[in-house]
């Protein structure tokens, strides 16, 4: 879609200065404040309320990249309503929205924040600001506006009617990224399910406004953000057809989960402890799995690079086998439809014996990430699983940030998946926190039963081992079923408890 381009100097040139009508207000930093003229000069807070965030536009370096992006990608303006928290929080949230938009393949032209006690029920941003947003859209030649939040269908529709370009919300954006990144059949089905749920709730709202799906440029990947996956054709079908598709997906997913459940049951039967690597998206979960096991999982400086969990076997120094699973990352306000659709994948974490919670120590707000991750964990029933906080990217984090995190999380491991710093100590911490086999035994195992000794190695914990003339004299902790199998080799008087 081509939009009328206003004759303006490029990006951030003098038109900014024209509109900067803030006189009394002294900004605390050098952020570019831009009071948008709404004819009402009374309220200072309101005058500065739609604010441009500096450094927002996606930087394109090389000319072929520019052309490539022009063809395929959307040119977007980001808008957020800042209701609570500090200015820094609002800006961090905006930077995250920008990363999400770029991950989806957009070129970000501008970011605007409005301070408001709550979003406007009709238009998200104040209705007086909508015209000003329209001006920015025209000035930048944007074809899409992305709002930071989950908007009601009516809000999206009202905004589109007035701004005349596609308007999507953060939820649709995240769904779109998931749709682009899903690789396995299961992942694809999960994403489609989430998208259909999202669409279903908005069917009526979008009924008369299907152009939003058809509009915009249609690139190789489909209809652009919010348009990939179940798009216009499904929207045009009735609720009943969507419902039947949802039912089909659910049953397909149940079947796929069956396979996973079989594997899980197998591991449970063999009492193999499982560790799930969880954390905020881009925290370095896959990098850590690779570092710990050499798994070769895809690592990308992109949000939601991992959607399919990867499980790898690992061993403690004394030979006990356990599994490590890399999982899908979380984000603030992870859309509920996604959490629900990914339930079977996320269950992996809820059923784990230990959660390795990876935190990006170089992020401006690691505590915010931790809070967001714990919220999702509790949502999926994993709040009770023991958690080990791992502060990653120690090589990139500032020493002050690390000191602060060390104080706040005294038990945390501090590592760098990139340099390997702290990894061996993390490994031993993980080992020490694996569940211990319950039964302590003393057994004399004849040398021809090396298989049993081997099994104690893999699933139990050796306390002492002595080679005698009659066989290996072993004191160990094992699981009840293995203890049962060892019954006839047990030495009468139990060893004194040592652990
Ligand atoms: N500087 C630094 N960068 C790291 C470190 N660990 C990971 N990264 C980088 O962080 C980015 C994300 O890493 P991933 O391992 O893909 O992160 P993830 O948590 O699996 O991300 P998602 O699967 O997208 O949720 C990549 O660019 C990594 O190279 C580290 O210790 N130090
Ligand atoms: Mg990953």
Kindly describe this structure.
This protein has helices at 14-19, 44-47, 63-72, 87-103, 127-140, 153-163, 170-181, 185-206, 211-214, 232-236, 239-269, 285-293, 336-341, 343-350, 366-379, 399-408, 423-433, 450-459, 480-485, and strands at residues 50-52, 75-82, 107-115, 144-147, 166-169, 274-279, 310-315, 321-326, 354-360, 387-392, 413-414, 439-445, 461-468, 471-478. The chain is α/β, with parallel strands linked by helices. The protein has 3 domains: 14-177, Rossmann fold (3-Layer(aba) Sandwich), CATH 3.40.50.11060; 271-433, Rossmann fold, CATH 3.40.50; 439-489. A 6-stranded mixed β-sheet has the order 7-8-6-9-10-11, sandwiched between helices. Strand 7 (310-315) and strand 8 (321-326) form a beta hairpin. The longest helix is centred in the middle third of the chain and has 31 residues, at 239-269. It starts with 13 loop residues before the first helix and ends in a 14-residue tail after the last helix. The site of magnesium ion (MG) has 5 residues, from helix 12. Belongs to the TRAFAC class OBG-HflX-like GTPase superfamily. HflX GTPase family. GTPase that associates with the 50S ribosomal subunit and may have a role during protein synthesis or ribosome biogenesis. It is found in: Cytoplasm. Residues 1-21 are annotated as: Disordered.
SSE arrangement:
Elements (H helix, E strand, L loop, with lengths): L13 H6 L24 H4 L2 E3 L10 H10 L2 E8 L4 H17 L3 E9 L11 H14 L3 E4 L5 H11 L2 E4 H12 L3 H22 L4 H4 L17 H5 L2 H31 L4 E6 L5 H9 L16 E6 L5 E6 L9 H6 L1 H8 L3 E7 L5 H14 L7 E6 L6 H10 L4 E2 L8 H11 L5 E7 L4 H10 L1 E8 L2 E8 L1 H6 L14
Parallel strand pairs: 2-3, 2-4, 4-5, 6-8, 6-9, 9-10, 10-11
Antiparallel strand pairs: 1-3, 7-8, 12-14, 13-14
The structure holds guanosine-5'-triphosphate and magnesium ion (MG).
């Amino acid at each position: 879609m081509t939009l009328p381009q206003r004759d303006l100097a490029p990006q951030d040139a003098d038109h900014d200065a024209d509109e900067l009508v803030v006189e009394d207000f002294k900004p605390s930093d050098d952020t570019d404040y831009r009071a948008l003229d709404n004819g009402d000069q009374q309220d200072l807070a309101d005058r500065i309320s739609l604010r441009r965030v500096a450094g927002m536009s996606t930087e394109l370096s090389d000319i072929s990249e520019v052309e490539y992006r022009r063809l395929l990608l959307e040119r977007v303006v980001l808008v957020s309503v800042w209701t609570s928290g500090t200015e820094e929080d609002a800006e961090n949230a905006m930077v995250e929205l920008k990363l999400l938009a770029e991950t989806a393949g957009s070129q970000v032209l501008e970011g605007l924040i409005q301070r408001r006690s709550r979003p406007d029920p009709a238009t998200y941003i104040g209705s007086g600001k909508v015209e000003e947003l329209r001006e920015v859209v025209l000035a930048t030649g944007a074809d899409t506006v992305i709002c930071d939040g989950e908007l009601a269908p009516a809000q999206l529709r009202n905004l589109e009617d007035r701004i005349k370009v596609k308007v999507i919300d953060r939820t649709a954006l995240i769904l779109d990224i998931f749709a682009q990144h899903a690789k396995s059949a299961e992942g694809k089905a999960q994403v489609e399910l989430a998208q259909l749920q999202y669409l279903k709730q908005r069917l009526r709202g979008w009924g008369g406004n299907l152009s939003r799906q058809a509009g915009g440029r249609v690139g190789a990947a489909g209809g652009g953000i919010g348009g990939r996956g179940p798009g216009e054709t499904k929207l045009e079908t009735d609720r009943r057809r969507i419902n039947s598709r949802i039912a089909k997906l659910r049953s397909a997913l149940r079947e796929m989960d069956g396979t996973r459940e079989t594997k899980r049951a197998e591991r449970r039967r063999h009492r193999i402890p499982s560790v799930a690597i969880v954390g905020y998206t881009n925290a370095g979960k896959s990098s850590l799995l690779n570092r710990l096991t050499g798994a070769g999982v895809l690592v990308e400086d992109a949000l939601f690079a991992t959607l399919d969990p990867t499980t790898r076997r690992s061993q403690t120094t004394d030979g006990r086998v356990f599994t490590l699973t890399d999982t899908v990352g979380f984000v603030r306000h992870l859309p509920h439809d996604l959490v629900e659709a990914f339930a079977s994948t996320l269950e992996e974490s809820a059923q784990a014996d230990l959660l390795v919670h990876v935190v990006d120590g170089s992020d401006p707000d690691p505590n915010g990430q931790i809070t967001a991750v714990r919220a999702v964990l509790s949502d999926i029933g994993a709040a009770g699983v023991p958690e080990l906080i791992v502060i990653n990217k120690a090589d990139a984090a500032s020493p002050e940030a690390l000191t602060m995190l060390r104080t706040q999380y005294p038990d945390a491991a501090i590592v760098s998946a990139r340099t390997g710093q702290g990894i061996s100590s993390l490994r031993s911490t993980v080992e020490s926190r694996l569940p211990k086999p319950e039964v302590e035994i003393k057994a004399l195992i004849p040398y021809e039963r090396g298989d049993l000794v081997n099994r104690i190695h893999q699933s139990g914990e050796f306390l002492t081992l002595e080679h005698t003339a009659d066989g290996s004299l072993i004191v160990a902790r094992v699981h009840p079923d293995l203890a049962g199998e060892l019954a006839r080799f047990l030495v009468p008087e139990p060893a004194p408890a040592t652990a």
